[in-house]
């Protein structure tokens, strides 16, 4: 049975920024959500698909109306790249992060003062740190999005590295 | 990731879905082939 059609509040997409780990190989790279393990999400449910929307699943058993209010389920993103990196989701924070990028959300979306939680997400563009330059073309081909190399430092990390 | 103070949920629908396959173009209508009169053979 197909789901009941919902009347949209917004026509378009909500745009945010998030980070991923690179998994697979240089020839067949895939992007995996960072905090999947800590949210009891299986490896397969954490890998972003290449040719369809990524659909949020709830690790606490909700099967509809995701993201459920008051639950941790949903696809997360910061509102801006600067904010994402300032939260230590750059390449050189505590987590092994290999790519950041812009995502578009659709379906049920909850806007917070600092970010988004959503039901469906897709990757719009990616930035990888210089040491992962070999992944640029394969990622662009796999996800059919623009990929570039760039700084994934936060402003404060950059200043302290430069001794300012 | 902390999204901060949440607002009420909304439903968002893209104008165009990038993953949706475009519908195949309809086949051109076939015109009926006119029946040919049988050739007259000279007597």
Provide keyphrases for this structure.
heterodimer; A: 164 residues; alpha+beta; seven-stranded mixed sheet; 8 strands; 33% strand; B: 43 residues; little secondary structure; 0% helix; 9% strand; rod-shaped
Task: Describe the protein.
The complex is a heterodimer of chains A (164) and B (43). In chain A, strands 2, 3, 4, 5, 6, 7 and 8 form a seven-stranded mixed beta sheet that branches. In chain A, a hairpin with a 3-residue loop joins strand 6 and strand 7 (115-128). Chain A has one domain. Chain A has four helices and eight strands. Chain A is an alpha+beta fold. The longest helix of chain A has 9 residues, at 81-89. Chain B has 43 residues and is low in regular secondary structure. The model of chain B has no long low-confidence stretch (mean pLDDT 83). Chain B is 0% helix and 9% strand. The A-B interface holds A 6-14, 18, 35, 51-53, 67, 69, 76-78, 87, 89, 104-118, 122 and B 1-15, 18-19.
Concise synopsis of the structure shown:
The complex is a heterodimer of chains A (about 160) and B (about 45). With about 160 residues, chain A is α+β, with helices and mostly antiparallel strands.
Tell me the helix content of chain A: 10-25%
| Rg on CA atoms of chain B, Å | 31 Å
Q: Indicate the percent of residues in helices of chain B.
A: under 10%
Which structural category fits the helices and strands of chain A?
A: alpha+beta
Distance between the termini of chain B: 96 Å
Listing every helix as H and every strand as E from the N terminus to the C terminus, the arrangement of chain A reads: EEEHEEHEEHEH
Mean pLDDT score of chain B: 83
Count the E strands of chain A. Answer: 8
Unreliable residue runs of chain B: none
Shape descriptor of chain A reads globular
What does the overall shape of chain B look like? rod-shaped
How far apart, in Å, are the first and last alpha carbons of chain A?
61 Å
pLDDT averaged over residues of chain A: 87
Counting helices, strands and paired strands, the structural category of chain B is little secondary structure
Order of helical and strand elements of chain B: E
Total DSSP helices of chain A: 4
**CA-based gyration radius of chain A:** 16 Å
State the low-pLDDT regions of chain A, or none. Answer: none
Roughly what fraction of the amino acids of chain B lie in strands? 5-15%
């Amino acid at each position: 049975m197909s789901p009941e059609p919902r009347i949209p509040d917004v026509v378009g997409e909500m745009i945010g920024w998030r980070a991923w780990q690179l998994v697979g190989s240089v020839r067949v790279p895939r992007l995996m959500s960072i905090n999947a393990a800590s949210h009891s999400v299986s490896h397969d449910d954490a890998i972003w698909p290449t040719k369809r929307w990524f659909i949020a699943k709830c690790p606490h058993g909700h099967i509809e109306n995701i993201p459920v209010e008051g639950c941790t389920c949903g696809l997360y993103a910061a509102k801006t790249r600067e904010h994402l990196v300032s939260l230590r989701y750059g390449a050189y924070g505590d987590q092994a992060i290999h790519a950041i990028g812009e995502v578009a959300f659709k379906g049920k979306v909850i806007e917070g003062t600092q970010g988004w939680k959503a039901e469906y997400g897709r990757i719009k563009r990616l930035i990888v740190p210089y040491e992962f330059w070999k992944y640029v073309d394969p990622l662009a081909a796999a996800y059919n999005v623009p990929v570039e190399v760039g700084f994934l430092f936060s402003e404060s990390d950059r200043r302290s590295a430069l001794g300012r | 990731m902390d999204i901060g103070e949440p607002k009420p949920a909304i439903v968002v629908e893209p104008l165009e879905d990038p993953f949706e396959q475009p519908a195949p173009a309809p086949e051109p209508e076939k015109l009926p082939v006119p029946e040919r009169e049988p050739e007259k053979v000279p007597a």
